[in-house]
């Protein structure tokens, strides 16, 4: 197939500002520093030493209570959303400890306002000298809606309509300052040129925002945009707007099919497919010998209670899996939540004949497939996915923090470098530079928006 990358693997790190994996936080080598700034600084330095493109934080705006109509399993087992710090604040801490590492955080278009998101990420981009990224999500859980004074979530068919307009407003706000608007002339005096700072006067279905932003245009023009939608509408939204796509697959074949489809969708939106970086999830379990790996895998698996994994999966699917027998397969269900996760677990269930109990154990650990083994075997798996057209790089999760990242940097990164697949130094100063992405000129978003619907111009 056509090569859509430059021959160099891109790496993001999926970091959790909380315990994350229900077995990982119990592992003896795990550290419990989730409320300690030094914990995140150490992870940031480790990732920068490994020349990662960015640290990526997902976010949850509630303690999930979808499984068995209770948050008991989340809190008891330290599952996905049991504790989550505000990732933008964490990234500010990590920015102070690094010079090159990209800094990516989720912010929901369902519960935040465009002005506050534009301001937060413009601020982070300035304070990090051009390393910020925004993971755009449309929230789906009623538990999250109830934390924002809403009785229920926005209907599925409306979430991306709101997100489309949300992005337009954010881009307008980032563009409300010309690149040279901040003059800082003490003698004249002229702090900022009023002719180069503009009201946006946006009036739309969801938002009425006057502007301008009270932060100068970001160093990257626009912070990097990340998206993870897997439904048909989500894929089209990602192909239209995203610089980076985060996705999860259970097989190489499904990853290749997704990669081809999203690159084609990007072309249909008039984009160069190489401007869209697809970084599927990978959770390497690496060790110096097979015996070490087997011991780690068994220990980590033994630490996962099936209810912990099912609680997390219930959150992702927005389906109470506690209603179904543990020793029967996952049934066909209507999924209001994340379609990609449902496709992934349906594929695994059908292929391996898993019961719901077994699926819960696996979903809470997920140490299978091409990314488990000695350093050369893990590098083999990453290289295969990369060369066979399944990925432009990977979003690396650690089986436990921070040790899983330390092991990957120490053992796998040198192997990738030896094969000529990975950088030996950072290429540029900003995250866009290091991802091989151009800096957008003011107004560049309009070409992307026009592919979807006519953009309302300011009056």
From TrEMBL:
InterPro entries: Diverse_substr_monoxygenases, Luciferase-like_dom, Luciferase-like_sf, NTA_MOA. One of its GO terms (molecular function) is oxidoreductase activity, acting on paired donors, with incorporation or reduction of molecular oxygen. Residues 21-389 form the Luciferase-like domain. Coiled coil: none annotated. Signal peptide: none annotated. FMN binds at residues 59, 106, 160, 231. Belongs to the NtaA/SnaA/DszA monooxygenase family. This is FMN-dependent oxidoreductase, nitrilotriacetate monooxygenase family. It comes from Bradyrhizobium canariense.
């Amino acid at each position: 197939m056509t090569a859509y990358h430059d021959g160099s693997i891109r790496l993001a790190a999926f970091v959790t500002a909380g315990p994350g994996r229900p077995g990982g936080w119990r592992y003896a080598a795990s550290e419990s520093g989730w409320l300690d700034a030094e914990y995140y600084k150490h992870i940031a330095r480790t990732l920068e030493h490994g020349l990662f493109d960015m640290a990526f934080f997902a976010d949850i705006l509630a303690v999930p209570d979808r499984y068995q109509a209770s948050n008991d399993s989340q809190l008891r087992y330290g599952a996905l959303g049991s504790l989550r710090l505000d990732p933008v604040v964490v990234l500010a801490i990590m920015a102070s400890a690094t010079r090159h590492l990209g800094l990516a955080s989720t912010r929901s278009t369902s519960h935040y306002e465009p002005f506050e998101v534009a301001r937060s990420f413009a601020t982070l981009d300035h304070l990090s000298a051009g390393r910020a990224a925004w993971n755009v999500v449309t929230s789906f859980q009623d538990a999250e809606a109830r934390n924002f004074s809403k009785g229920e979530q926005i209907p599925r068919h409306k979430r991306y309509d709101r997100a489309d307009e949300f992005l337009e407003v954010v881009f307008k706000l980032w563009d409300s300052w010309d690149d040279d608007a901040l003059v800082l002339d003490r003698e004249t005096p002229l702090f900022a040129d009023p002719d180069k700072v503009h009201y946006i006067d946006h009036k739309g279905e969801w938002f009425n925002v006057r502007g301008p932003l009270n932060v100068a245009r970001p160093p990257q023009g626009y912070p990097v945009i990340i998206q993870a939608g897997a439904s048909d509408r989500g894929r089209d939204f990602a192909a239209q707007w995203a610089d980076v796509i985060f996705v999860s697959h259970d097989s190489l074949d499904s990853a290749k099919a997704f990669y081809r489809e999203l690159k084609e969708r990007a072309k249909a939106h008039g984009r160069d497919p190489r401007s869209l970086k697809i970084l599927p999830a990978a959770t390497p379990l690496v060790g110096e010998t097979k015996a070490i790996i087997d011991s780690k895998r068994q220990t980590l698996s033994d630490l996962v209670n099936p209810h912990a994994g099912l609680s997390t999966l219930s959150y992702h699917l927005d389906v109470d899996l506690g209603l179904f027998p543990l020793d029967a397969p996952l049934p066909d269900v209507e999924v209001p939540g994340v379609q990609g996760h449902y496709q992934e677990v349906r594929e695994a269930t059908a292929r391996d004949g898993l019961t719901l109990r077994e699926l819960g154990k696996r979903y809470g650990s997920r140490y299978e497939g091409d990314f488990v083994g000695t350093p050369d075997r893990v590098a083999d798996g990453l290289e295969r996915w990369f060369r066979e057209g399944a990925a432009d790089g990977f979003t690396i999760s650690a089986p436990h923090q921070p040790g899983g990242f330390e092991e990957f940097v120490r053992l796998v990164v040198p192997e990738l470098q030896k094969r000529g697949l990975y950088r030996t130094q950072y290429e540029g100063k900003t995250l866009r530079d290091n991802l091989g992405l151009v800096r957008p000129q003011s107004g560049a978003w309009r070409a992307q928006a026009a592919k979807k619907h006519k953009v309302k111009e300011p009056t």
